[in-house]
Amino acid sequence: MSGLGSVGFGDDFIKIYRQTSPGLPSGAYLVGQVVVGVAFALLVQQQRFAASSAAISCGAGLSAEDDDLAAGGGQVVEEVAAFADG
Prior knowledge:
Elements: H1 2-18, H2 26-58, H3 64-70, H4 74-85
């Protein structure tokens, strides 16, 4: 949010400093927003990767049963099917 605010501030600053209406050209404004968006997306991806890596390396308190469920839960599916059959 503050990155997009910085782009808007730059636009307003140019309008006031030059005392003209146009401010930043629309292409420069768009490029600024894209740069901020890409930087934000990369930051989120980096944080997500770091969090998932930490959860995997410490086990995140998962039991063996949770590991089976995460691996597809084949045994659970078989038990449900057997229960449904009666």
